[in-house]
Write a structure and sequence with these properties.
119 residues
């Protein structure tokens, strides 16, 4: 079994910054890709950013130039540095990892962390 634990959410004023962390633990042989999703009230969950094992990042257009995804592969941890935050960034942010274990490859989700951007 694999567990993902997120941290770093909170309340921040528009223009501020937050750094989210997601640590994976358990029966992990390798992690193929780690992603951050978010879900705002009344909206579908959307992909925010992703990073592969070679460190290649991808971002949804609305966060390009403001968010930075990075990873610490030995620690199986992914980060999301969020700068110039806007009220429309308010959402629950979820970490997702595609993991290779000894007998299976599958995706896992964290429990989510609330990010609120408001003055």
């Amino acid at each position: 079994q694999v567990r993902l634990v997120e941290s770093g959410g909170g309340l921040v004023q528009p223009g501020g910054s937050l750094r989210l962390s997601c640590a994976a633990s358990g029966s992990i042989v390798s992690i193929n890709v780690m992603r951050w999703y978010r879900q705002a009230p009344g909206k579908q969950r959307e992909l925010v950013a992703a990073i592969t094992t070679d460190g290649s990042p991808n971002y949804t257009d609305s966060v390009k130039g403001r968010f930075i995804i990075s990873s610490d592969n030995p620690q199986n941890t992914v980060y999301l540095q969020m700068n110039s935050l806007k009220p429309e960034d308010t959402a629950v942010y979820y970490c997702n990892a595609h993991v290779t274990s000894r007998y299976v490859q599958r995706g896992y989700w964290g429990q989510g962390t609330q990010v609120t951007v408001s003055s």
